[in-house]
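TL;DR need structure tokens for one chain.
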Amino acid sequence: MTDETLPPVDDSAISTVIDILTAPPDGTAFTVEYRITTKFGGQTTEGSVVVDPLNGTSVQIADTRYITRLDGSTLTCSTVTNSCVPGVDETKVADRMLNSRIFRDAMVDRLRQDANVAVGDSTLERRSIADRPSSCARVPVVDGSGFTQQKSYCVFDGLGVLASFDGADLFIDTEQVLPTADPAVFSSAP
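>> reply
TL;DR here they are.
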């Protein structure tokens, strides 16, 4: 299904957070640095998303960088070998239960799924994360043991990316937000 044919989300808190994540970019360059914990095994990973209106988007997870240029072309790069290959190779970070879309589009997918399985209405909270205004949806879901748990999705207002996430599999927290984008993270040259 394309985004235009997806059914609307009836939960107002989830809908608000999805709207922020899918809003068109405002032309602001920024960098968000994350600490990610994969709860199954307790593996901790550093990650970042860099948005630059002149270059595109660069997502880094551990030593893998995914570059999406403004023309839609994509690269998967290693920061260890300083080499890139065309396309998106999700296997590079799959062992961490992550993918190249985790800071935006994958969270929209998760929110839509949770809107279908929630056991009650979600609540919307306004918070400050890394000194930036954020909107959070707390979603009640039933875990594998049959207990109701709260998933928390927070997004930065005005930036359209994840601020924090707490679910059964992952905990993602922002370490800092910078109002700049390093052009070097868009380079495919060694």
